[in-house]
């Protein structure tokens, strides 16, 4: 069965451990700007939310890439072939959640760490989990998205 990242914002402490471990795993330095996960604080709602690529089924980033540098790997992650990437940033614009970034002229995003996501492994509160995709986890993802729509309005998405 395919696995997926499940976010539970109500558990997030805002510690940013996920940002640090991600940047260290991908860039060998503790630098949140090189992380594929960002923790956003919503002070009004008193909520911190880890934001990362949701590995969309119909990924807009892959569809818009003019050189077809983005494709799904064996772990279900949309992965960027750095040799093909020309740094045009069209995928960054196409991502509806803003979960892609640029580093040294190349685009990067969450790759699920080759099937062993470090953010989930080291999250102290369990706000980020990597588990089998099930109907209930998909329902939970949709429920969280609805909470955000209610809290911040449809125009935020």
UniProtKB/TrEMBL annotation:
Q: Which PROSITE patterns match?
A: 4FE4S_FER_1, 4FE4S_FER_2
Taking the record's annotation, the residue ranges forming a coiled coil are none
Gene3D superfamilies the record matches: 3.30.70.20
SUPFAM superfamilies for the chain: 4Fe-4S ferredoxins (SSF54862)
**Mind telling me which CDD domains this protein's record contains?**
DMSOR_beta_like (cd10550)
MF terms per GO, please? 4 iron, 4 sulfur cluster binding; metal ion binding
Q: What keywords is this UniProt entry annotated with?
A: 4Fe-4S, Electron transport, Iron, Iron-sulfur, Metal-binding, Transport
> Can you give the residue ranges of the 4Fe-4S ferredoxin-type domain?
3-33, 44-75, 76-105, 109-133
Q: InterPro entries, alphabetically? A: 4Fe4S_Fe-S-bd, 4Fe4S_Fe_S_CS, RnfB_subfamily
Top-rank taxon, per record: Bacteria
UniProt signal peptide:
none
- Mind telling me what this protein is named? 4Fe-4S dicluster domain-containing protein
């Amino acid at each position: 069965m395919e696995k997926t990242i499940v976010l539970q914002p109500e558990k997030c402490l805002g510690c940013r451990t996920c940002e640090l471990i991600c940047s260290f795993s991908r860039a060998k330095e503790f630098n949140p700007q090189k992380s594929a996960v960002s923790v956003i604080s919503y002070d009004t709602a008193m909520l911190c939310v880890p934001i990362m690529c949701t590995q969309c089924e119909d990924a807009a980033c892959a569809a818009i890439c003019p050189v077809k540098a983005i494709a799904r790997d064996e772990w279900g992650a949309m992965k960027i072939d750095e040799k093909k990437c020309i740094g045009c940033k069209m995928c960054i614009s196409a991502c509806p959640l803003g979960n892609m970034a640029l580093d040294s002229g190349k685009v990067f995003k969450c790759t699920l760490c080759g099937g062993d996501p470090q953010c989930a492994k080291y999250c102290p509160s369990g706000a980020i989990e990597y588990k089998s995709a099930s109907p209930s986890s998909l329902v939970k993802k949709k429920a969280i998205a609805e909470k955000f729509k209610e809290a911040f309005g449809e125009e935020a998405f």
